[in-house]
Amino acid sequence: MLVGVCLERCPEVLIALLGIWKAGGAYVPLDPAYPADRLSFMVKDSAAKVLLTDNKHKPLFASASGKVICLDSDWPAIAQASRSNLKPSAALSNLAYVMYTSGSTGTAQGSDGTSKRSCELSLLGHQVVFRPIRRLGSSTYFDLF
C-alpha cells in the first residue's frame, strides 16, 4: 500500500517512514513546499490510500479520496488502534517509496525504489568518509535517499 507523507522536517517523518516500512508499505514523499496542484496530481497518480500530514498542511488535501491522518491532532483516534506490535512484513523486494520527478515532459513522473536499493544506498554511505556539507535547500525527502 502506498502512503503519502506530507510533513516538514521533524522526527515524526522518520517515525512515519519506519512504521510504513514495517507494515510492508511504501511512502510517497509530498513536499509541503510544492504547489497544491502538483501535490494533488501526485496523490491521485500514485493512488495513495492514506495521507500522513498535520493540521497546517491538511487543507492541501481537501479533495483527496484517501484517509487523511493528522499526526499532530488525531492521537485520540490513533490511540484506539491496537497496541500490539505488528508482525514485520517488510522484505528487501518490497517497494520502499515512489518519488516523483519533474519528468522530461514537464509532467511529474513516479520513480520507484525497493527496500533492497535503499539498504544498498545506506551501506554505501558507510564506505565513504563523512565530512560536513552545506545543505543547499533540498527537500527533506531527497535528503533521506
**Widest sheet, order of strands:** 2-1-3-4
Task: Please write the CATH class name.
Answer: Alpha Beta
The H/E string reads EHEHEEHEEHH
Number of helices: 5
The radius of gyration is: 16 Å
Mean pLDDT: 77
**Spans with pLDDT under 50 lasting ≥5 residues?**
115-131, 133-138
Q: Care to count the β-strands? A: 6
Overall number of structural domains: 1
User: What coarse outline follows from CA principal-axis ratios?
Assistant: globular
Could you tell me the strand content as a percent range? 15-25%
Q: Which class best fits the helix and strand makeup?
A: alpha/beta
The major sheet is characterized as: 4 strands, parallel
Name of the CATH architecture? 3-Layer(aba) Sandwich
Roughly what percent helix? 25-40%
For this structure, the CATH topology is Rossmann fold
Textual characterization of the structure:
The protein is α/β, with parallel strands linked by helices and 145 residues long. It has a single domain, classed as Rossmann fold, CATH 3.40.50. It contains 5 helices and 6 strands. The protein is globular, with a radius of gyration of 16 Å. 22% of the residues are buried.
